[in-house]
Amino acid sequence: MGMLDHAGARLTAKPEEAEILVVNTCSFIDTAKQESVDTILEMARHKTEGRARKLIVAGCLVERYRDEIQRNIPEVDAVIGTGELDSILAAAGIQQPAPAAPSPFTILKHDAHADVRAGREAEAGTHRNVPAEISFRAEGDLREQQGRFRRDDWQGAAHLLPTYLYDESTPRLLSTGKTSAYIKIAEGCDHPCSFCVIPNLRGKFRSRRFESVVAEAQQLVARGVREITLIGQDTTCYGEDLGLKDGLATLLDALARIENLRWLRFLYAYPNRITGRLLETIAKHDNICKYLDVPLQHASPDVLKRMKRGASAEIFLKTIDKVRAAVPGIALRTSFIVGFPGESPRDFELLENFIKAAKFDWLGVFNYSDEEGSGAFGLDAKVSKRTIESRRRKLMKVQQGISKRAKQAWVGREVLLLAEGPSEETELLWEGRTQFHAPEIDGKVYINDFGRLEKLQPGHFYRAEITEAHDYDLVARVVSPSL
Ligand code: SF4
Predict the structure, then answer these.
(1) CATH, range 160-408
(2) 195: CA distance to ligand 1 center in Å?
(3) Whose CA is nearest to atom 2 of ligand 1?
């Protein structure tokens, strides 16, 4: 979006108005693929029946089904993989603006895309022509040798894995409002989780330069952003490829010092990478949200072993105790997969008991999706879809009770609230978030009383009192603005 905007394209969120349509896709599980394909087909209709002239498909679906998309959906004019972002202007038929000073498009200057398109990369390994500024971890190199990133059995996928990383000079448009922004600090993943094809789609783990992340955060705050969420497939590995020890903690420490940055958080910690230094850093800075999202995936040691993640409920409970002791009041989010091949009733019971014992603030449960190219695809003892769904429902019911009781304890507390705007459900209410709610994913705080204020400003912070609690959501009354 930033590159298109920078080149003079006028962006619209209304497909019926657009001359060029870009569909950014996801393909890590079946439902995401289906949603992506449905959207492409819906947009294709704007081309055949409406005013659109070009249809471009970008993102992870392209990494997996490059040829098939173009073969099966002839309305698609161009495809752009996750490592080919700088091809967007050519695909859209828009002239690249003359670069002022050093060009932001310094990445992948060699025409690796041409190799991908011509299929010449097939025998050269998964990574070739890697830009000099990109480094990998020894663990990633080893996993590559073990075949972790191979996609030979994915018909239509290019063999060359993406190596792209944006930097602070890459043009960017915020789609998350003026106050809140995500910063991707690393890309790719070297972990061997057997259910997951994300490494095959995104490539080996690589970190953005430390100074680049800090510069981008400073620029965003100067533009009025007050909440920054750091993301990556695994943020807790940040900096390992750059030779940094405790890279994420060091980065958080530097970012927390940026004046006027009110909330800073990171998503997706790998459980055994939550170091004492990381927890100390979260505890030390008032503007680092007391919030940790650590996907655990399961609690049964047998299932975790087959998932190639390791650990157990006992180990996780110790980690959770350590986290809560180091950062009192921290909100914990996790997610689990139910129905992994071979998950027995005993494994499931173990998981259920673990959830009751751990009492997470926020929890997501995903149904196992059997993905071609993942290690688990070849495993036997698959669990039926019906059993998987009933297990998911059961866990969500358990969590509902835990959440309901925990949310009651919030009533009467005074909190700092970021007002987001009128509620989608009714104009009589506004919606907001506390530091314990990450954007878009956790429950909501509804504001039904503005106190002495006539109106609220979206993107502004307020002191508020929690007056009611529901299963997952809270209701608040504004006490005063917080400047
Ligand atoms: S750590 Fe996350 S992204 Fe990486 S392989 Fe495991 S599940 Fe996939």
Answers:
(1) 3.80.30.20
(2) 9
(3) 233
What atom in ligand 1 is closest to the CA of residue 234?
1
Pairing of strands 331-338, 291-293: parallel
DSSP secondary structure letter of residue 382: P
Please classify residue 285 by burial: count the beta carbons closer than 10 Å to its beta carbon, then call 0-12 exposed, 13-18 middle and 19+ buried. middle
CATH number of 2-98: 3.40.50.12160
Report residue 161's pLDDT band, with 50, 70 and 90 as the boundaries: confident
Tell me the average pLDDT across 459-482: 96
Q: List Cα–Cα distances, 248 to 230, 252, 288, 292, in angstroms.
A: 10, 6, 12, 13
Tens digit of pLDDT for each residue in 199-244? 999 999 999 999 999 999 999 999 999 999 999 999 999 999 999 9
> Dihedral angle at the C-alpha atoms of 461, 446, 473, 226, nearest 10 degrees?
-20
Ligand 1 centroid – CA 376 distance (Å):
13
Residue 112 region by backbone torsions, left for phi larger than 0, else alpha for psi between -120 and 50, else beta: alpha
Dist CA 291 CA 302 (whole Å): 29
Find out whether 232 and 268 touch, Cβ atoms under 8 Å: yes
Q: What angle do CA 42, 44, 46 make, to 5 degrees?
A: 85
| Closest atom of ligand 1 relative to the 192 alpha carbon | 5
Protein residue with least CA distance to atom 1, ligand 1? 191
How far, in Å, is the centroid of ligand 1 from the Cα of 311?
Answer: 15
Give the predicted TM-score (pTM) of the model.
0.92
Q: Rounded distance, CA 462 to CA 445, Å?
A: 12
Q: Which two tokens stand for residue 44?
A: 């294709």
Which of the listed residues 28, 137, 148, 196 should we mutate to test ligand 1's pocket, taking the one with most ligand atoms within 8 A of CB? Answer: 196
* 191 C-alpha to ligand 1 centroid (Å): 6
pLDDT at position 115 is 46
The pLDDT tens digits for 329-388 are 999 999 999 999 999 999 999 999 999 999 999 999 999 999 988 999 999 999 999 999
Residues of the chain with CATH 3.80.30.20: 160-408
Q: Outline which parts of the chain fall under CATH 3.40.50.12160.
A: 2-98
Which residues have CB under 6 Å of ligand 1? 189, 191, 193, 196, 198-199, 233-234, 270
Q: Which CATH superfamily is domain 414-481 in?
A: Nucleic acid-binding proteins (2.40.50.140)
Domain limits, CATH 2.40.50.140, in the chain? 414-481
Which pLDDT score is estimated for 101?
A: 53
Per the listing, tokens 């002022």 go with 100
Other C-beta atoms closer than 10 Å to the C-beta of 420 total 22
Residue 98 clears pLDDT 70, i.e. is over it: no
Looking at residue 339, its pLDDT comes to 98
